[in-house]
Write a structure and sequence with these properties.
Distance between the termini: 98 Å
Structural class: mainly beta
Shape: elongated
Strand content: 35-45%
CATH topology of the largest domain: Immunoglobulin-like
Order of helices and strands: EEHEEEEEEEEEEEEEH
CATH class of the largest domain: Mainly Beta
CATH architecture of the largest domain: Sandwich
Helix content: 10-25%
Radius of gyration: 28 Å
Length: 236
């Protein structure tokens, strides 16, 4: 932390249960001993609440999790960051402008009669959450488990909790993984994280179309071969 300045301070919220703020620190920083984050609602002149930060997973960030009683669109928080007893940073955050929704859950996948794969999921919000029933768009990505860098991403710009992965976009004999993320269009600041993946296998099951694709060329070759043989037989 530079004197009088905080690096990469940012906040986001799931707009349901928590508001998370984090900032960059050096690797040796003990967040809970060196920092305190004070917060209060704007226009509510009540005593400040305090959040004791924790070291992030990478040890290069301090993270403070605030759990408000409620969320409303016009709510703004006034924040003050204290470092070793000295206030060094003031900030305001409006949760409605920094919504990072929770990822979709309960992914499931099954094979359709046409040979494609139907991927379905559930939203992570239900009444009385502010995001329950709000307009939402999704992105689906899937990849061969053995080749995780070769990813197909499909946008779903309509209200749906399912997506059909076409067999023609897959390669036979491979295991695949599919995942989904979402963005609420009235609160578009952030996409959610990608959901937990669901696995499926595209095997060597032979369809009627596959049989037809094999039979037609083989039949043509046989007809040509018989025609050639007959020609030579009759010309002798």
């Amino acid at each position: 932390v530079a004197a009088g300045r905080v690096q990469e301070f940012a906040c986001f919220t799931d707009y349901d249960k928590e508001l998370v703020c984090h900032w960059k620190v050096s690797a040796q920083t003990n967040c809970s001993k060196e920092f305190l984050l004070y917060y209060r609602k704007e226009f509510f002149f009540l005593p400040n609440h305090v959040c004791v930060p924790e070291n992030g997973k990478d040890s290069l960030r301090c993270t403070c999790t605030i759990r408000p009683d409620y969320f409303v669109s016009g709510l703004t928080y006034i924040l003050a960051l204290q470092f070793n007893g000295t206030e060094m940073w003031n900030y305001s955050v409006t949760p409605a402008l920094v919504v990072k929704p929770r990822a979709p859950k309960n992914l499931a996948i099954g094979k359709a009669e046409n040979g494609n794969f139907n991927l379905s999921w559930e939203d992570s919000y239900s009444p009385p959450s502010m995001l329950s029933g709000q307009p939402v768009i999704y992105e689906v990505k899937y990849w061969r488990k053995q080749h995780p860098t070769e990813v197909s991403v499909k946008a779903i710009n309509y209200q749906a909790n399912s997506f059909e992965i076409t067999a023609s976009s897959l390669r036979r004999g491979y295991d695949y993984v599919a995942s989904v993320r979402c963005n609420y269009t009235d609160y578009p600041a952030y996409w959610s994280e990608w959901s937990e993946g669901v696995e499926f296998h595209y095997g060597y099951h032979v369809t009627a179309e596959d049989i037809l694709q094999m039979v037609v060329p083989v039949s043509c070759i046989l007809i040509m071969a018989v025609s050639v043989i007959c020609y030579f037989c009759f010309t002798k």
